[in-house]
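Supplementary notes for students who missed Thursday's class. We covered one full example, reproduced here. Read the sequence, then the structure, then the short commentary at the end.
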Amino acid sequence: MDRVIGSQPFVLGDEVQAFEREIAAYLGVKHAIGVSSGTDALTVALLALGIGPGDEVITTPFTFFATTGAILRVGATPVFADIDPATYNLDPRRVAAALSPRTRAILPVHLFGLAADMSALSALAREHDLFLIEDAAQAIGAEALGQRVGSLGTFGCFSFFPTKNLGAFGDAGLVCTNDARLAEVARGLRGHGFSPKHFSRQLGGNFRLDALQAAVLRVKLPHLDDWNRARRSNAALYREALPAHSRLSLPQEHGAAHVYHQFVVATADRARLEQHLMARGIASERYYPHPIHLQETCRHLGYGVGDFPVTEAAAEQALALPVFPDLEPWMLDRVAQAIREF
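Structure (token representation):
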């Protein structure tokens, strides 16, 4: 940070370019483009692919709103498909049923740190000549098909919001791709579509990455794998300490593929369990209590209660427990003991 302040290229510049090279190598992609947030990463990807009014993008109704918001912002129509009850990720069979002649892309979310079923989703995208955009905001470092997430689709999109597994000191994001032409388009879009400077060839936006954020991320990136290993270790301790119970389900285990951005359990007694933990000084969080298809900004899409029953059940039952890397074994034991008591 002192280096950036001393040289004063506060937006883009050498620091951002260095970060882009380093994270491209980490992800195993040819091109990485730093942007201002994970939401903007999704927007840039959609714009770069020319997705807009009249186009449909199939995605999940069970995630953070930014995924759907980016689709709406470019003028396209989000089409929802229900999730797999075991993984909370898009169910490829439901995606196949939602395809239409207007479908241009599939936009899966690697939710809570677990990769979606990229084998099935990639096959669908190839069969129907669709773009595949990965929302990997919660899953940096996770793997699927022997590759890191973000490297498997047409575009990969990441968030470096401070609470993410790799977090900046504010908002920051990334778009990555193996397509040189699309990478060049994305770079232009993040800076008002200028090429050259002050000459707008396409309508973009101010989606640039701050150099200070890039500097922070460069320092933290070498620690990411250790932090993810700590999250997996914490998840394993939970599994040992929480025996199988008919009223409590634990997240599916996928070994090194899962990076546990969240450790999400499910119970029909969520409200009471939440209160029980709070009374003992233990934080928990509901992810996500309001399914996207039932939110006000999506009313015009025509969905209603009962359209996506797996999503709606998850919204009523899912509860995230502390899993961050700095937890100590006694802390995890305290959480597990409180749950066993309940």
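Commentary. The chain has two domains: 2-222, 224-341. The domain at 2-222 is CATH 3.40.640.10 (Aspartate Aminotransferase; domain 2). If anything here is unclear, bring it to office hours.
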